[in-house]
Amino acid sequence: MDANRISEQEKREHADPSEAGMPIPLGIFALVAGMVLFGAYYIVTDRQPLASELGDQRTLEDLLPKAAAPAAASGKSGAALDGAPIYAARCAACHQPTGAGLPGVFPPLAGSEWVTGKDEVLAKILLHGVTGDLTVKGATFKGAMPAFKDQLKDEEIAAVATHMRSQWGNKASPVAAEVVAKARAETSSRTAPLNGDAELAALK
Asked: Can you give the residue ranges of every domain in the chain?
């Protein structure tokens, strides 16, 4: 076969595309370079108060209304501390921001007899968590709720309990930090979660 021979079919084909001397259009090159320079300038000149890897650095005092800070610091009332951000951070992932829970998975807090019932029982649930079968509004849920006794102070637990008892149509009295402190003291030796209906039914 003659390598120098060009067939009629080959003559009809277009030449292969070439990048020539400028593989990237000048306008695109200028745009990308400008974005890179702007990004570098922004990073160098922007002054963040905290390193992003440190996460949310809010303390208990940051969550307090200014006028209520002295009262909450003394532990006199769970209502002095806003329980909404605590709920959003600790509870909403399971029980949902609406308090409706997830059917068959996480029980609702809206209209729950455990939320609007005895404040000391709710305090113990939040302190120690629950495992096993738990009946809420006639439906049985089987799961595991974590304990917050080592994560939240008495006034924080009182605040989130008060928040739950006043949201989503719930109308129950606030929970005082003293109630949580008493429940914590009475169950200080407990290391296991509450055993659902089997244990909580007697506390209603």
From this structure: 75-203
And the tokens for 149? 């006794």
Percent of the chain with pLDDT over 90: 44
State the Cα torsion 179-90-116-97 to the nearest 10°: 150
pTM assigned to the model: 0.61
CA distances from 136 to 15, 40, 65, 83, 118 (A): 75, 55, 33, 22, 15
Comparison of pLDDT for 125 and 44, the residue scoring more: 125
- The per-residue pLDDT for range 30-59, each reduced to its tens digit, is 899 999 999 888 888 776 555 544 555 566
Where are any strands of DSSP class E within 24-161?
130-136, 139-145
Residue given tokens 């080959």 in the structure block: 10
| E strand or H helix that includes residue 162 | helix 154-164
Q: Per residue in 82-119, is it b (16+ CB within 10 Å) or e — as a string?
A: bbebbbeebbeeebbeebebeeeebbbbbebebbbbeb
Q: What's the CATH architecture for 75-203?
A: Orthogonal Bundle (1.10)
Q: How far apart are CA 201 and CA 117, in angstroms?
A: 12
- Can you tell me whether residue 106 is helix, strand or coil? strand
